[in-house]
Amino acid sequence: MKGERQQDGFRSSEERPFKFMYKTGDRAVGMEMSQAGSVASAAAEFITGVEQRDVVEPLNRSYFKRPGEQSAFLVLREGREERPTVREGKKSVQAGPCLIRSEEWLLEPELFCLYENWLSSEDELQANRILQRIYYRLQAAATALLESPDGEWAAVTLLHPEELAAQPAKLAALQDAQLEALFTAVAESQRQGGDCRLDLLVAYTASGAEFAAKREFIEVVADQTLGHAYAAACRIGALIALDVEPSAAAEIVRIADFLVLDGAASELAPEGAAAEGFALAAGEILAAVRSVKPAAVVLAAGNPAAAALADLYRIGLSGIFCSVGQRTEALLRAACLIWIARQQETLDTAAGGRP
Known about the structure:
Structural class: alpha/beta
Strand order of the largest sheet: 3-10-9-8-7-6-5-4
CATH class of one domain: Alpha Beta
Number of helices: 11
Helix content: 40-55%
Oligomer: single chain
Distance between the termini: 65 Å
C-alpha cells in the first residue's frame, strides 16, 4: 500500500506540509484526554437543566473500558449540530466522538462541482489539477470541523462514493487527498494550541485483509503528514454494513480499534421492520466479534439504530450514534434502561444475600 502514496501524481511524501511531531509529554500514545461521561449523567443534565460545568479532572479519552469500570451505553452524536462555530474558553462535557460522514462534504455546491468535473475528466493533468482543488476544499471543511465544538473529538469516515467502487485507483487518489487534508488540518490546529482528537472510520470493508490494507494506507499518510507519534495514536475503526458476514466482522475487529454497524442502508424500510432487522443482524455480528475480542467496542449508527435502542442495549452493544433530532429521546430511553438494570442488580444482590 505504500506505493499508493505516489498514485495519480498527487503529492509525494517530500511535498507533504506540516511535518509535525508531538513533543514529549504533549500527548502520549493512548493518553488522549477528554471529558467522557456516561449517557446516564448526560440525560440527568438534560432532565434537570443543569448547565454543564468545567471539568476539574479530565478523564481518559478512549473507546475502551478499563478493568473495574461499570459498563455504559453511550448515546453519541451523528452529524454536525447547529451550534456556535467557535468554541468557548471552557471545555464542554463530551460523552464521546461525533460521527461525521465525509460524503456529505462532497454535496457542498463548490466541492460537488469540482468532484463531478474530476470524475468526468479524461485528461490526466487536468484531473490532477482538479484533485488539487478538491484537496484544498476538503482541508477547509476539515478545518471548519476542528474549529467547532464537534471537532473536539470527531470520528470521520473515509470517503467511499458508490460511483468509485469499480475504480480503485481513482478511489485511492480521492482518499489520499482527503487524508492529507484531514491531517494537515489537525497539524495546523495543534500548531495553534488546539486539543482536537480525530479518529477515522474505514467504510464498508468486507474482509480483514481489505481493512488491513486500508489501515496501512491511513497510517502511511498519517506518518508522512504528522509523524509517527500521531500515526500510532490515531484510532482507526471500521464502518460495516449489516449484510457483512459475521465471520468477516470478526476478522476485521482483530485489527480495528472499534466497529460501527451502519443501518443507513435499511432506512428506506418501514421503521418497525428496519429496527427489528437491525437488532437481529447486530446480534449475530456482535456474537461473532465478541468471540474473538470480548472487550471489543461495537457501536451502531443510522435511524434504525435509534429505533432499536432497547434491543441493542439488551444484547450488549456499546452505544449508538444518532442525529440531533433523535438524541434527546435516545438519551432518556438509555438512561431509563440503565436505571432499571441497576435497580434489578441491586434487588438481585439483596435477594442473594438473604439467609
